[in-house]
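Protocol step 4 of 6.
Sequence for Protein-arginine deiminase (Peromyscus maniculatus bairdii) entered exactly as in the expression construct, tag removed. Do not edit the line below.
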Amino acid sequence: MAPQRTVQLSLKKPTHAVCVVGVETLVDVYSDVPKGASTFGVSGSSEVKIYMVYDPARVAEPAGRAHWPLDANVDVVVAADTVSKNLNDLKVKVSYFGSQEAGALGHSVLYLTSVDVSLDVDTGRTGKVKKGSGDKGTWRWGPGGSGAILLVNCDRDARGSREDLHDRHLRSLEDLQDMSPMVLSCGGPDELFESHKLVLKASPPDSRRLRVFCARGGTSLSDYKQVLGPYHQDYEVERLPGESDIQFYVEGLAFPDTNFSGLVSLSVSLVGTEGLLEVSLFTDSVSFRVAPWIMTPNTQPPLELYVCSVTDAHGRNDKFLDAMAHLALKADCKLVVCPRVENNNDRWIQDEMEFGYIDAPHKSFPVVFDSPRNRGLRDFALKKILGPDFGYVTREIQFAGASGLDSFGNLDVSPPVRVGSKEYPLGRILIGGSFPKSSGRRMARVVRDFLQAQQVQAPIELYSDWLSVGHIDEFLSFVPTSDQKGFRLLLASPSACLELFQEKKEEGYGEAAQFDGLKHKAKRSINDMLADRHLRRDSMHVQKCIDWNRELLKRELGLSESDIVDIPQLFFLKGAYAEAFFPDMVNMVVLSKYLGIPKPFGPLINGRCCLEEKVRSLLEPLGLRCVFIDDFLSYHQLLGEIHCGTNVRRKPFTFRWWNSVP
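Step 5 output, structure tokens:
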């Protein structure tokens, strides 16, 4: 360790200095030397370690009663290994000798008072503070990394309308569980702290991103005092007589974002207050990284299925709710029905929010990301989901309204993947936007920047602007599988649908009709659909758009063709944008092996829907169970499907994000 401070000695009077346990001090033995002196020797109290630092090429260590030469640039470094019980109770003595090695020509004496000043956090990521562990001021990624972690205190443990991070005062003792512990060691003689002080500091930017509470040992809220945070950049520590450790709690106030890497630092300084000027004698620093918001893919087990109760021209969606309840029961998943009084007849709950979580060694909890869409469900996440150990975050678009692509049906995440030598153990976020270098619709920058800044699920922007609604869940989904790969990417495929219909025509079923059994939709025979040049042209245009995304996904997720399943689906163009010709089967809800798939109402062959049979043949050999659900009137005709009208909170990853290397 490099010397932290230099102390000059004097032959005329003893020198007094303060040192910190374990911190090296350079002793200047050259500033005041007796005339005729050529060598020196050093001795000290047993509690003081003395190190001679020299160049072996220039000088050898003295043997016997010999001493160190004064002309060989030998440095004297001392360090105390224990805390002083009294002022000046540690001693270092330097004696100077002439060339004849007779009696000493003079002596310099240094009296040290040793104090224990250390700021410690959970650098080892074990959930507990361990003193003096590693380089506390540097944060490193990876399984061998180190550095403390801070949670954004974005849940609501006490009564109120906003997240806990907005409270300047502690309002619930449970709130301490969301904070990262920090311990200040401050052992030493009480008399020393009459002329010295400890100052805790945060830089101006960091003080806006964290808040620090000082604990005073009691069990009431008044025993916890905010000492650092917005508008409070430094704090003179109130050390009590005999106190050797002071407990602090640190909360995050902001997620990583475009102007914030997620790293924050705190420091404590021992400051001498004697004389006209205050002198900083020692500083210790710690670094935290704010935990990112993490999404969970369809391959994670479901915990809760959310769906809205609504009424429209066709009546209530009770049958759909019953189907969701049946599916949730099969998957052993809790069903949460959002009533009309809370959703304002807005059924698109996937578009309104996305469930994720934040994770630290000492605590983790789910966090809902509220989209800037702000329609009938705009208050649901804040008013009904935010609560104890359930956080909330949002990003609002300034000076403009949200576009359709800002809804979170346009936000997804892949399962964990490996791309070449690069691992993505938490998967990669997927969003939809315009074709590269075009001027089409994109997700708002404020949302894209937020997702990018989380670092651990590097986003991929797909091309979805070719769709009327513009959401990626209209042409892709991921499903878990029981094989070694662990998942498949499902892509909507007009080509596969036309091929299936052609096959059925050649088998003699050309008059079998699409939409058979629907009262509100005219039937279309297989022969009619295959002969419809406009439908064929539109579907082939859509196939080209999906194929462009297919190649991008293969490249960015490290997928092969065997990892992709083509789900038959036709589209038609309405103006320049595409819509599903029949209920869009990839727009499904995935609850473990149970898939809630929009019922396509395909041509019936021998009493069975050929589209359903085809999808079963593709997915059920992978260990999946297909449950086809009628969403035609309540969702499909309104340009959405089952995935759009549901939302799933899933189990977090067991992999800890700090073990990744972005």
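Step 6, annotate. The two ends are 30 Å apart (CA to CA).
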